[in-house]
Specification:
This protein is of the alpha+beta class. The chain has nine helices and 17 strands. The longest helix has 14 residues.
Length: 360
């Protein structure tokens, strides 16, 4: 596993390499075969039911051992050095915590998870390999203020914005590495604290997808995702001259760009051979259905519901995407103050023409 990570360029720091070599990953995923523990994929270790529209529920993952490549990339981006103190948000299995303990010493590692059962399981596994870091069950949004400031903060759960408490608890010049919530539009944020109340940084070229940070232990999503009545109200029928196939097999960078325009965008974008339509929706408030078969040359049918004309936004955003030369994620940066209403994603320059507000 470690050799493959090194050959792929995910693992460069020799001290992190030593940490991965010395840490028995299989002890943190009991019940899974050893060959699974060291495979390239993430391993789901817990799931909980989530309600679905129309009744019933579906099990969604709530904890996992992250894919080794994601683990290595995120630890590399933390830019760790001897003597630094790290806050980890999302203890999970404790494997990542163990790597931090090996690299820095367990007395410099602090980790929080919303699930007390996960915290206790991680505590046992960590003790088995000789580590006793500070572990706390609680809301990760709040960090662990009593042990701040930290030299680095690592989130192993996905965010829609930077929690203000994290901005305050990171020391000046410290590093934050955290995933942005999403599927195709998921992205890795790497920020540095540049002022007492501010972080700034960019999206990393690496793409990482993680489960959302939660405030409700019993719900697997960051917040319940149920269509509001407005989304089910009288639809608006129309047409578009924008080919909807742009949302079929959408590129990760384009999906991230659209996410900036539509909060909580969910691209149900795989071409369905029966329905022949694409159906994006936004933050449980608005939906759009666009037929993939034109009703006449260069004209496709559109049905939009909810308070926002979702397809109109996507259509205009796609035209701007072309005008901006299809910007990749490396061209986007993030500025986050310790207020959620003062956090932005920007293109090329924080004082430039284009910016989008968080939360996303």
């Amino acid at each position: 596993m470690v050799d493959l990570l090194t050959e792929a360029g995910h693992l460069v720091d020799p001290k992190l390499r030593s940490a991965l070599l010395a840490t028995p990953r299989h002890l943190f995923v009991p019940g899974h075969p050893v060959e699974v523990a060291y495979a390239a994929q993430a391993i789901v270790t817990q799931s909980r039911p989530a309600p679905v529209v129309g009744g019933g529920a579906i099990d969604l993952p709530t904890s996992s051992a992250s894919a080794p490549a994601a683990v290595a990339v995120m630890l590399e981006r933390l830019d760790l050095a001897d003597g630094r103190r790290v806050l980890e948000v999302g203890t999970g299995t404790g494997y990542n915590t163990a790597l931090l303990c090996h690299r820095l010493g367990d007395h410099r590692v602090y980790s929080i998870d919303i699930d007390p059962a996960l915290v206790e399981g991680a505590r046992r596994a960590l003790a088995e390999v000789g580590y006793r870091p500070t572990l706390i069950a609680g809301d990760g949004h709040e960090g662990i203020p009593q042990h701040a400031p930290y030299d680095a903060i690592l989130a192993t759960c996905a965010l829609t914005h930077i929690p203000p408490a994290w901005v305050r608890q990171l020391r000046l010049g410290g590093r934050l590495v955290a995933p942005l919530v999403g599927g195709h539009d998921a992205a890795l944020m790497v920020l540095t604290k540049t002022a007492d109340d501010e972080m700034t940084g960019r999206f990393d070229p690496a793409r990482t997808a993680f489960m959302p940070v939660r405030t409700d232990l019993d719900h697997p999503l960051a917040s319940p995702r149920v269509l509001s009545p407005s989304a089910l109200a009288m639809p608006a029928y129309g047409t578009t001259h924008q080919d909807p196939r742009l949302l079929v097999d959408v590129s990760d960078d384009f999906a991230l760009y659209l996410h900036l325009h539509v909060r909580g965008l969910d691209l149900v974008n795989a071409e369905n051979p029966t329905l022949r339509k694409t159906a994006p929706r936004s933050d449980a408030d608005s939906t759009a259905e666009v037929g993939l078969t034109p009703i006449e040359p260069h004209t496709w049918p559109v049905i939009q519901k909810g308070p926002r004309r979702l397809w109109d936004t996507i259509e205009h955003a796609s035209l701007l995407w072309e005008a901006l030369s299809q910007p990749g994620r490396q061209r986007f940066g993030i500025t986050a103050l310790d207020r959620t209403d003062r956090q932005y994603v920007w293109l090329d320059d924080p004082d430039g023409t284009y910016s989008w507000p968080m939360p996303l």
